[in-house]
Amino acid sequence: MIESVTSRIISNIRYGRPRPNPIPKVRIIKEILRLYPPEALLVPRESINHCKINGYDIRPKTRVLVNAWTIGRNPESWNDPEKFSPERFKYSSVDYKGQHYEYVPFGAARRICPGIGLGVAMVELALANLLYCFNWELPSEMKEEAISMDETAGIIVDKKYDLRLVPVKYVLE
Ligand code: HEM
User: Fold this and answer.
1) Residue 104 maps to a domain
2) pTM of the full structure
């Protein structure tokens, strides 16, 4: 108890208050990972004991695949799940560290991704540089509606069609 009060005070001194959670760029990355988790099917598991889930009998030694893609779009957990809306994380404590089973882009439990910190930092760095250094435009013949968000099917998910954009160097006047 004392420890948690102390750490709250320290974090208030560090970051000021009130502070929405988390900062906007992280919300965008969280929302991308909710809708498009690169590893759509987590590392396969094998059940040890017999159990029943949603009326289905899962016998011992059954290979279980957890679908992170579907979990992130479950309407029972998410309002308007197909909508890209980073704001949904503004006042929500749901994060990807494996404690919230409605959101598992890095998995959960013993096999959770050990590279979360590095992975998020790399995405943030790449995205920040792309947005800081360039304005991005569509090729002249292309309409916005033509951008396809279709994905390939499989354990690792990729864009089905490449995103073609024209970088225009951004120069501060
Ligand atoms: C945005 C980037 C990344 C995403 C979305 C991601 C996602 C995942 C997921 C979903 C799993 C399976 C977890 C489970 O089944 O519970 C996993 C496992 C793993 N990831 Fe990542 N990962 C990322 C970056 C990284 C990086 C940068 C590293 C290493 C530097 C890394 C190393 C690993 C390893 C070693 C495992 C296997 C863990 C095990 O099976 O015990 N990942 N990752």
Assistant:
1) yes
2) 0.84
Residue 147 φ then ψ, to 5°: -70, 125
148 lies in some domain: yes
Q: Which domain holds residue 132?
A: 18-169
Whose C-alpha lies nearest to ligand 1, atom 23? 119
Structurally, the chain folds into a number of domains equal to 1
Give domain status of residue 10, yes or no: no
From the first residue on, what is the mean pLDDT of each consecutive set of 10 residues in the chain (173 residues)? 46 49 81 96 95 94 95 97 95 93 96 96 93 92 91 89 92 72
Angle between helix axes 116-133 and 24-35 (nearest 10 degrees) is: 110
- Phi, psi for 82 (deg, rounded to 5): -80, -10
Q: Which atom number of ligand 1 is nearest to the Cα of residue 109?
A: 16
36: in domain: yes
Decide: 111 in ligand 1 pocket, CB within 6 A. yes
